[in-house]
Design a protein that fits this description.
single chain; 11 strands; Purple Acid Phosphatase, chain A, domain 2; six-stranded mixed sheet
Length: 244
């Protein structure tokens, strides 16, 4: 039995290849394995849409995993932070807190989406704090679904404009001091996260960060972290290894 961690799949009905790759990845897991989807599983989520082919596919795929005795967990990302416990039940996964400590490996490991590490991005952190307010969420969900989708698409497009060479790493990147504080507060020295789309295994970056496993986003390649009796493993492979 092992624990697997993935992030930043950005699944949508428009990208059937990624949906198929996720199903193929799940199919490789064994009875008793656990999977944590650490945010940005959906390209964006503004509510359950019974006509959305991607959502229906995810619901059925995760139901099949549950029937195979594979437990699937979910952490919010910046694209799917609106998922509620009711939504999680619908999709057949279990919600985890933003900062989750796993103790199944050789030592405790902190697992998070990773947006909390980017503390210099003040505008996003302010937006994130606002969206956690219950009354804001209730107000948002009074809007028709098509309006919610338009708002999400605008936010997504604005975010994508910041990618590439114009994205200042001092603002939008990980802040070492924040990483160190989060690990200190969690009493961990190992962290697994996504969000940055920068795959890599990093050692001793701060006094309390012994090892940082950074997951990549899924596209031409896919990546995952694995925790088992042999320790911690970070793997990246071509997506073609999962599907043709």
């Amino acid at each position: 039995m092992a624990l697997y961690v993935i992030a930043d799949l950005h699944l949508s009905a428009e990208n059937k290849r990624l949906c198929s790759a996720f199903a193929a990845f799940l199919n490789k897991l064994q009875k008793g394995d656990r999977l944590i989807i650490s945010g940005d599983f959906f390209n964006f989520f503004v509510g359950i849409d019974p006509y959305d082919e991607c959502q229906k596919f995810i619901k059925q795929t995760l139901l099949t995993a549950r029937q195979r005795k594979i437990d699937v967990f979910f952490q919010h990302g910046n694209r799917d932070f609106l998922i509620s416990k009711k939504d999680a039940d619908y999709f057949n996964f279990t919600l985890l807190p933003e900062l989750f400590i796993d103790k199944s490996g050789p030592e405790p490991c902190l697992i998070t989406h990773g947006d909390c590490l980017c503390s210099n991005d003040k505008k996003y952190q302010e937006f994130k704090a606002i969206t956690k307010k219950t009354w804001i969420r209730k107000l948002f969900f009074t809007l028709p679904l098509f309006v919610r989708k338009k708002i999400a698409a605008k936010l997504r497009d604005d975010s994508q404009k910041l990618t590439g060479k114009g994205r200042d790493p001092l603002i939008y990147g990980m802040v070492p001091a924040t990483l160190d504080k989060i690990l200190t507060d969690s009493n961990c020295s190992i962290i697994i996260h996504g969000h940055l789309h920068q795959y890599g295994d990093h050692y001793n970056e701060t006094p309390h960060a012994k090892q940082r496993f950074a997951l990549g986003d899924w596209g031409e390649d896919y990546s995952y972290a694995k925790i088992d009796a042999g320790g911690f493993h970070l793997i990246k492979l071509p997506l073609s290894k999962l599907i043709n």
